[in-house]
């Protein structure tokens, strides 16, 4: 969906309808954050699969992941909309760049907090999960090598 909204964004921005542009910018923001969130949830799933292999039962696991995957981005976008819906829009309507219209976040601070900081948080969590999984796999490999040496003796 993020790709689809991104591809039709310039075309929809060309209609010069502020409400339509805000809706497109909100959808683009939401689906981008949802993609980041699902990427992070995949790392949590990888952690549970490789590190916490046994004795892990999470009731309604998929439902909780779906609520987090679709709900957290919705909360972020709702907060931005509640603060000021005019953070979204088309700021590239200048005479120097007539073909550069694009519906997106207009305030740099809002962009850096709601997109860049959000991505960095998800990326740091992914990195931590990845390192943890690598350490777990490495420790399993070293244990297996020790066992094989014992069997050879």
TrEMBL record:
Instruction: Show the GO cellular component annotation of the record.
Output: plasma membrane
Q: Which residues form the G-protein coupled receptors family 1 profile domain?
A: 1-153
Question: Domain of life, per the record?
Answer: Eukaryota
Kindly list the GO molecular function terms attached to this UniProt entry.
G protein-coupled receptor activity
Q: Which residues form the G-protein coupled receptors family 2 profile domain?
A: 1-153
Q: Write out the transmembrane intervals.
A: 33-54, 61-83, 109-137
| Gene Ontology annotations of biological process type | adenylate cyclase-activating G protein-coupled receptor signaling pathway; cell surface receptor signaling pathway
Instruction: Note the topology in the membrane.
Output: Multi-pass membrane protein
Question: What are the protein's UniProt keywords?
Answer: Membrane, Transmembrane, Transmembrane helix
* Major localisation: membrane
Report the InterPro entries cross-referenced here.
Answer: GPCR_2-like_7TM, GPCR_2_secretin-like, GPCR_Rhodpsn_7TM
Cellular localisation: Membrane
Q: What is this protein called?
A: AGRG4 protein
User: From what organism does this protein derive?
Assistant: Crypturellus undulatus
The gene behind this protein is: Adgrg4
